[in-house]
Amino acid sequence: MSSVYRDVLWGDIPIREPVLRELVQSAPVQRLRGIHQAGAGFYMLPSARPTTRFEHSLGVLYVLASMGAGHEERVAGLLHDVPHTAFSHTADIVFPNDEHNFHERFQHSVIMASQVPSILERHGVPLKAALEPDSYPLLEQPLPDLCADRLDYALRDMHATGHITADEARQFLSHLVPTPAGPVVDDTEAALWFALLFRKANDLLWTGPLEAGAYWALAGAIRRAYSIEAFSDADLFSTDDAAMRKLRSSADPEVQAYLSLLRPGINFYAVEDDGPSFKTHMKQRHVDPPVWEPHMARPLRLSALSDGYRQTMASFPPGGSVHYRLWSSSMPPLLRASASPGQAQRGSSQAGVER
User: 322 near 312, Cβ under 8 Å?
Assistant: First the structure.
C-alpha cells in the first residue's frame, strides 16, 4: 500500500513505507502546510510564491529518493523543517543570530513534544533521524555545496516563478551522483546551469530590495507585538494564517503600520541620497557544485572547471552580504516620522537566511 502526493514540480511522489505515511499524516508535518517557504516575501507576491514547507519537505524526500538515499535519511529529509516557526525565517530577524538558524534551536523541543518519537520507535527508526538532520550528507551540506534541501528549494522557487520547467528540473536531477561527502554533478554543463540558476534566484527572489523590505516590515510588526504582549511564542510556533490573524487583531498603531507594508504593489527601493531610509542587509548565497565526470579521477569544483563561473563568483559582494538603505513611498506616517535624512529608521534588522 502506498500514498501518492501530486507535486507541482516533481509530479507523483509515492509514499510507500509505513513510517513515512504515518509521519506525513502527523500533526507536526501537516502544520507545515500552513507555513510558506517565502516567509515575509509571500505577502508581496502571493501568486508567485505559494510554496509551503509541506510541499518542500515532500520535495526533499523525492530528491533524496532519486539519489538512492537510505530509509533513515529519507525520514530525516521529511522531518527537517518540522521546527520552523510561522513566517519561516522571519524569526531569524526578530531574534537575530550570526548563524540565521533560530528554528534549529528548537529541533529537540518541538520534536520531543510531538508524536514523532513514538512513531519512529514503533517503526524501528533511530530518533537521530528527527533530531540531527545535519548528520545526513545527502540531505544537508554547508554552502557552497549541494544538498537535497538546497536543490529542492532552489528548483522549486524558480519553477514557481516561471524560470524553469519541471522537465528541466528533473533533467538536472538525473545528473546528481550520491557520495559519502554529499551530492556531486556528473556533467560540467549541468552544474553550470544549476549554479547560474541559483545565482539568479539569489538576486531576483531571495536578496532583493522587495524581499529585504518585506522581512524588515514583518519583523518590525512581530517585535512590536511581542513588546506589548500582543504576540507570544505560541503564536510564533503556529501557522502563518494564525499568526497573521493575531498580529492583525492588535489595535496597536505601530503593529498595523508595519503590516500595511505587506501587500502586493508595495515597492521598496534603495536610497542613494540623504533621504529618509532604514538599514538592513541580506545574506548572499551561491553554490560551487562539485563536478565528477566519468573521466575525472576525483571531483572538482565548478569554479575550477569554468573560468566564466569563477568570475561570476568573484562578483559577489565582499563578506557575503549586500547592505541596503531602503525606503518605500508607501511608508505610513507613523514610521515615516521616525526616520530622518541619512539615518536608520527604528527597527532596522539583519535579513537573509538559508531557506
Answer: no
